[in-house]
Amino acid sequence: MRGTRMGDRLLHLWTWLVILWLSSPIAVMILFGFNDKQSKSNTTWQGFTLRWYGELFEISDLTTALTNTLVIALVSTAVTVVIGTMLGLALGRHRFRGLGATNFLIFAAISTPELVMGASLLSLFVSGNVPRDSVTIIVAHVLFSLSFVVVTVRARVVGLDPSLEEAARDLGATAWGTFRQVTLPSIMPGVAAGAMLSFALSIDDYVVTSFVNGSTVTFPLWIVGAVKTGIPPQVNVMGTLIFGIGVLIAIGNAIAARRRT
């Protein structure tokens, strides 16, 4: 009994150590957003200041890169959610020839290294004489995040009670009415989870984007390019705000899910 308690305590301690280790880069980013930078380097703590929050958009190239990232993430997420939801519904409800191959392709897209996907997309665009810009970035982001939306929506569809839709049709609801009033609200948690995952993958991506961006610069690309000259504190502030918004959305979803149950 005493050995079991000791094992539980060690397990809890190890869990908290892992959490602290994983959170340490985020904590450093947040901390250095308040660093009173007096030199070119922003790697040494030089004092506390709120100056960089007031001068958040002083670097025009960085602001443009952040805007590009947010626009690309929003557009690619919208496209991915629509296509992924339809595919998830089809794969979760129907059995057809080629279902196994389709499932294989979906999970293959998830497991494919970003380097391979980026190189293949670059070859596709170059061979087709497609100019690389924000549109090609959106296409690339849709392709690598689509499978994640399909998987989450499909998991939700498989758990649906088909009698609810049958009851709606028996009461005179049209196919669209049944989908809008019964099916979509039932699968909305899966759709929302897929949307958040797609948005996070898009806003965070560097490898695939670096292959297909052309002259368009996103937030991750700008940061990597600024390493040689020194990363300004505004980068830490922007990263902090993005992280904070993500945490608030996650908390809101958790509260909404608890209320639904």
Automatic annotation (TrEMBL):
The chain crosses the membrane at residues 12-34, 70-92, 104-128, 134-153, 237-256. PROSITE patterns: ABC_TM1. It is a multi-pass membrane protein. Pfam families: BPD_transp_1. It is found in: Cell membrane. Residues 66-253 form the ABC transmembrane type-1 domain. InterPro entries: Bact_Polyamine_Transport, MetI-like, MetI-like_sf. Keywords: Cell membrane, Membrane, Transmembrane, Transmembrane helix, Transport. Belongs to the binding-protein-dependent transport system permease family. CysTW subfamily. This is Inner membrane ABC transporter permease protein YdcV. It comes from Nonomuraea coxensis DSM 45129. The gene is ydcV2.
